[in-house]
Structure formats: structure tokens, C-alpha cells
Design brief:
Layout: H1 3-10, H2 13-22, E1 27-28, H3 29-33, H4 40-52, E2 56-61, E3 64-69, H5 74-85, H6 89-106
Antiparallel strand pairs: 1-3, 2-3
Helix pairs in contact: 1-4, 2-6
Keywords: DNA-binding, Transcription, Transcription regulation
Pfam families: HTH_5
InterPro entries: ArsR-like_HTH, HTH_ArsR_DNA-bd_dom, HTH_CRP, HTH_MetalResp_TranReg, WH-like_DNA-bd_sf, WH_DNA-bd_sf
Length: about 110
């Protein structure tokens, strides 16, 4: 993974927002598209850039592909810290945390 790819991926506000959502739970393209004013194919293109940069990973489960934050990356550690301070990332991260709690209670 090159720094150029990482910085290209982080240069996009929607991609930074996707990373904030994925910081707390795994989501599908459809789950993410429901949170944005964009189509699932557009979200998929953003996820592809994030995956090529090594910032997210994916796993197919049945008919769905679940995306997760790649926590092994130093860049993710730094962006996670920035999300806590960021006026946009913090609320998105808290929203994902609440969703994760609801899902764990339902199971």
C-alpha cells in the first residue's frame, strides 16, 4: 500500500465518513448507502478506493459483502484519533456505536 493511495483515499469527505461508520461496526454497501445521499454503486466505488489503499477489508457472507476498518494500519490509528476530535466524524462514530449496541442486544 502506498502513501499516495492512502492520501487519495482520505482526500474524499465521503470516504472519511465511511471510515468513521466502519470504525464501530461492519456494514454492507447497502447499509452505507442508506446513510448517504448517493447510490449503492457510488458507495461501492468509494469502498473500492478505501480497500485498494488498505484502509478497509471485506468479507462475503452469503449474498452480502461486509466491510470493516483495517485496524492494523497505522493510518487508521491516526484517523481514529482524528475522528474523536472531528466535528463530523465524532457524531458518525457515536451513531455507529449505538447501532452496534442495538444489534448486539437483538442477538
Amino acid at each position: 500500500m502506498s502513501l499516495d493511495r492512502i492520501f487519495e483515499a482520505l482526500a474524499s469527505r465521503p470516504r472519511r465518513q465511511i471510515l468513521a461508520y466502519l470504525a464501530e461496526l461492519e456494514l454492507t454497501t447497502s447499509d452505507l448507502a442508506a446513510r448517504f445521499a448517493m447510490s449503492a454503486p457510488a458507495v461501492s466505488r468509494h469502498l473500492s478506493v478505501l480497500e485498494q489503499a488498505g484502509l478497509v477489508g471485506s468479507e462475503r457472507r452469503g449474498q452480502f459483502v461486509y466491510y470493516r476498518l483495517n485496524r492494523d494500519s497505522l493510518v487508521n490509528s491516526l484517523t481514529g484519533f482524528a475522528f474523536e476530535l472531528c466535528p463530523v466524524g465524532g457524531p458518525l462514530k457515536r451513531e455507529s456505536r449505538a447501532i452496534a449496541r442495538k444489534k448486539s442486544k437483538a442477538t
